[in-house]
Amino acid sequence: MLIEAEASDFALLLAGSAPRPLVPVAGDAIAPPDVMQMLAALAASIRTAFAPSAWMVAEAGEVVGLLSLVRSPVDGELHIGYGIAPSRHRRGIAGRAVADLVAWAGSDPRVARLGAETSVDNPASQRVLERNGFKVVGTRVDPGDGALLCWERRV
Hints:
Helix content is 30%, strand content 33%. By secondary structure, the chain is of the alpha+beta class. Strands 1, 2, 3, 4, 5, 6, 7 and 8 form an eight-stranded mixed beta sheet that branches. Helix 1 (7-14) packs antiparallel against helix 2. The chain starts with a strand and ends with a strand.
């Protein structure tokens, strides 16, 4: 389930807590603190032009991941990124979260397309996007992340 993430939610997650009635994922973190801080700042920046800009991924009462916009929308295209706590990998959670976002996007007249990028070395994330109707539309090399596949899906 996706739940809109506000600045206060990011603050709680950074402090090792979660908004009630949810609890933080047991056993590990969704992301390292520096990544979580970067995501909070990015969501706040995008939220000034487009909201929602980030969502908590919740399963069984736990916040187990995040899904967010990774840049401000342009011409109806939202670029997304997502991450699930390592202890919750391989359970279909990312796929369900992306499916929920696709359903939400289909009901929002501001959204025409969804985009995402995955490492060429991340077949699990590639499968998440494929199963949710995304198609590879190109490649690029990022200085920090290396070779990436660029994905798109119309809504």
